Amino acid sequence: MSKSHTNRPAKLALSDGTVYSGTAFGAEGEAYGEVVFNTSMTGYQEILTDPSYCGQIVTMTYPLIGNYGVNPEDVESGSLSLRGFVCRELCRTPSNFRSTMPLDQYLREAGIIGLEGIDTRALVRRIRIHGAMTGVLSTTDLDDKSLVEKAQN
C-alpha cells in the first residue's frame, strides 16, 4: 500500500480555537487560509481549479468526493490556487471512463493538502454562524494549541 493510502493524521484549526482531526490525503505540510465551503454535489475538479478560491481552504458539503476522478477536460485554469481541500470522505478508487488519475494523486502532485474524516456539517455550521475564519491545515504540526495560535496570527 502506498503512503498516500495510509492513515496519515491531519488537523484543521480555526482562529476561534476549534480543531478538527482527520486523515490526510494529497500533499503533506501546512497550509493557511480563509476556510470556506462549497455546496456543489459535483464539479470538485472545477472548484479546485477555480481562481476565485485562491488562498482559501475549501470544504465540500457533499459527503463523498472523488468518485469520478480527475481529467484534463474539466479544469477551469492551468493550476490550483486554493491552499487546502476538506471533505467528509474521499473516494480513493474513481470509476469514470474520463478519469486519468484519482483526486488524491492530483492534489499530491499539485502540492495541495487534503483532509477527510471530519464532520463537515459541523464545520460549515460554525462558518455560517460565526462568519469567515482563518484556518491552518497541517499534516506536520498536530499540536492543537500550536495550530490554534498559528490560525490566530
* C-alpha-based Rg, rounded: 14 Å
Q: What oligomeric state do these chains adopt?
A: single chain
CATH topology: Glucose Oxidase, domain 1
Biggest sheet, in brief?
Answer: 7 strands, mixed, barrel
| Overall spatial form | globular
Distance from N terminus to C terminus (CA atoms, Å) equals 38 Å
Work out the count of structural domains.
1
Level-2 CATH architecture: 3-Layer(bba) Sandwich
Report what the structure shows.
It is built from 4 helices and 9 strands, in the order βββαββββαβαβα. The chain is α/β, with parallel strands linked by helices and 153 residues long. The chain has a 7-stranded mixed beta barrel with strand order 1-2-8-6-4-3-9. Strands 5-7 form a two-stranded parallel ribbon. It has helices at 44-48, 103-110, 120-130, 144-152, and strands at 9-14, 19-26, 30-38, 56-60, 64-65, 84-87, 89-90, 113-116, 133-138. The protein has one domain: Glucose Oxidase, domain 1, CATH 3.50.30. Strand 3 (30-38), helix 1 (44-48) and strand 4 (56-60) form a beta-alpha-beta unit.
